[in-house]
Amino acid sequence: MMEWSVAVAAGAFVILSAFMIAVLMNLRRLIKQLQGTILQMEERTRLLTVDAVQLLQRTDHTVLMMQEHIRKTASFVESMEAAGTVIRSTTQQVDHISSAISHSVMQHVQHAHEENQQRMSPLFRSLDAGLTLWSTWQRFSKASGESDPSEKE
Predict the structure, then answer these.
(1) Backbone angles phi, psi at 17, to 5 degrees
(2) Which letter, b or e, does each residue of 26-54 get, where b requires 16 or more Cβ atoms within 10 Å of its Cβ?
(3) SS3 of the chain: helix, strand, coil, percent, to 5
């Protein structure tokens, strides 16, 4: 019986060895697939790294260009601000000058009006007195019966 035991043990060893060989071969195939996947991932990671580096370089270049444009436009903006200040100051001065001129003109007009009233007042009083005298004389002459010298002709 020992022979049978040795034969069964040898058979079991052969079956177990065959099973282990099959498992190891399957494991080897899985490891090769895993290596291929890892190589693909490494390649994709390398490509992503290259793309990321290029993107960072372009971004850095763009930022530098923007900084340069900002630096160039800063002096323009400052100039525009200075021009705005000058324009505001000039406008205020023109407002002050026009206000002063308007005030001066109004004073001159008022003064001229008062002078004209002072000059013309005696003339109008004399004219009024003359017209009143003439009107009175006309009434008096018509009442006394004298004829108008222009009617005689």
Answers:
(1) -65, -45
(2) eeeeeeeeeeeeeeeeeeeeeeeeeeeee
(3) 95, 0, 5
What's the angle, vertex CA 97, arms to CA 96 and CA 101, rounded to 5?
120
Its pTM stands at: 0.42
Task: List the one residue out of 139, 151, 36 whose CA is nearest residue 28.
Answer: 36
First to last CA, the chain: 193
Q: What is the pLDDT of residues 103-136, one digit of tens each?
A: 999 999 999 888 888 888 888 888 888 989 988 9
SS3 state at 150:
coil
For 84, phi then psi, to 5°, come to -60, -40
Q: Look at the alpha carbons of 68, 70, 74, 75 in this order and tell me if their dihedral is positive or negative.
A: positive
